[in-house]
Amino acid sequence: MNRSIRLALFASILSACAAEVGGLDVHGGDYDYDDPDAELAVVSSELALGSMARSCSTAGTEGISRQLVDEMLCLSGGSLVRVSHPNVIPTHSRVHLYLSPQGRDALLSVARTQPVRINSAFRTLAEQYVLSRGCSVAAQPGRSNHETGRAIDVQNYSTVGPALRRAGFSWPMPSSDPVHYDAPGADQRRLSVLAFQRLWNANNPGDRIAEDGVAGSGTLARLARAPAEGFRVGRVCSGGGASPAPAPSPSPSPPPSSSGATCSHSYGGTYGHMACSASYQCCNGSWRTRGSSGCGTCTCTEGTGATGCGVSTPPPPPPSGASCTHSYGGRYGHLACSASYQCCNGSWRDRSSGCGTCACVETSGTRGCG
Question: Fewer CB within 10 A of the terminal residue: the chain, N end or C end?
Fold first, then answer.
C-alpha cells in the first residue's frame, strides 16, 4: 500500500470515528470511549502530527504522548503525580490520570466515597496540537487548562460535582462547560512544552530549538513534523529535572556530618538535614539523589517541594484578628482553614505547618469562615 493510499484510508477512518465522538468541552476534550482499531494505529504510525487528518480525537498520538508524559513526569520533580484508585475510572485508554499532589489528594477524597468517571485529565502537547487543528473549540498548544496538570473533565459530574467542589476543585464554567473542574496545584504548561522541546533536540541535534517552555512558532513548526508513533530516542531527563538538586555523583559518597544546614527547593520549600523531597535528600545543605547517594533514612518526606519538612517552624503568631483573602473570593479569619491552607494572622500557611487547630474549615474557597 503506497503512502497516498494510506493517507486516504487514514482520513476516511478518522471521519468515521469523528461521528462517534461524544460531547466536547471548550478545551477540545474527546469523549470517545473505545480505542481506535488496529488498522488506524498501523496507518497513523507512519505519519507526522501535521499530516494526520483533522479530527476531534487524540487517536494516533499514543506513541509520542507516552514519551512526553514520561519526560514530563521526570522533569516535574514530583509536582505531577499519578492518580490511582478503583473509583477513579478513565472512560477510554488515552486518559492520562495525572494531577498535582494537591489535586490527587482532593480527587482521592471523593473517590473513597463514590466513583468518578474521567473523560480527560492531563493532556500532552502533541494531543493538544492535534485537537487544536480539528476542533474549533480547542485551545492552541501550550494554552489549554488540560496541559496544566490540574484539569479534569468528569462524565458523571451531575452526581459527583458537589463532592468535588467541597474537596477543593473549582467549577469555572458551569454553564458552558459543566464537565470541567480545576484542581489546586501548580500550573505545568511550561513543563509540558519543555518536555517536547527536550525530546525534539535529543532526536534532531542539527535542528535544535530553544528549551524555554514557550510554545512559540519554532516549537509549533517542529511539533507538526514530530512522529505520531514517537521519537527514536525517548526519555532525556535523568531524574528530577525541575528539582534544584545537582546531577548525582558517579558513586555514593559518605554522609556528611550534621551541622543543621538546610536546603532550599526551587518550588519554595525549605528542607532540613536528612529531609527528603520526591526524588532528593537534603544532606547538610546540599541536595543528593535519594537512595543511591543520600545521607541516610529520610527524617521526613514532602513531595510537592512547596512546603518542605524537617525544619522547626516558628511558633504561631499571637492572634491579632488579621484575616486572609482566598484567591477564590472567600475571607478567612485567624486560625480558619481552607482545603489545604490555614490563615495565620493574616498570612496563608500550609495546614501541615499552620498555626494550630483549625477554628473552622471551608473547602471551596469561595465563602471563607472564622
Answer: N
pLDDT tens column, 80-125: 999 999 999 999 889 999 999 999 999 999 999 999 999 999 999 9
E strand or H helix that includes residue 46 = none
Give yes or no: residues 31 and 141 share one domain. yes
* Spatial separation of the C-alpha atoms in residues 280 and 293, rounded to whole Å: 9
For residue 287, what are the CA distances in angstroms to 21, 331, 361?
48, 38, 36
CB 136 within 8 Å of CB 129: no
What is the Cα 29 distance to its own chain's centre? Answer: 16
For the chain, how long is the longest CA-to-CA vector? Answer: 77
DSSP string, 60-79: T-HHHHHHHHHHHHHHHTTS
195 lies in some domain: yes
Co-location of 182 and 83 in the same domain:
yes
For residue 183, being part of any structural domain is answered with: yes
Whether residue 232 lies inside any domain: the answer is no
Quote the domain boundaries for residue 331.
317-370
Q: Is 197 helix (H, G, I), strand (E, B) or coil?
A: helix
Q: In which region does residue 203 sit, left (phi positive, over 0), alpha (psi from -120 to 50) or beta (all else)?
A: alpha
Q: Which long-range contacts (CB under 8 A, 24 or more apart) does 215-218 make?
A: 215/125, 215/140, 215/141, 215/142, 215/143
Strands 270-271 and 263-264, how do they pair? antiparallel
pLDDT tens profile 298-336: 889 887 777 888 886 555 555 567 888 887 788 889 889
* Closest by Cα among 243, 216, 231 to 76: 243
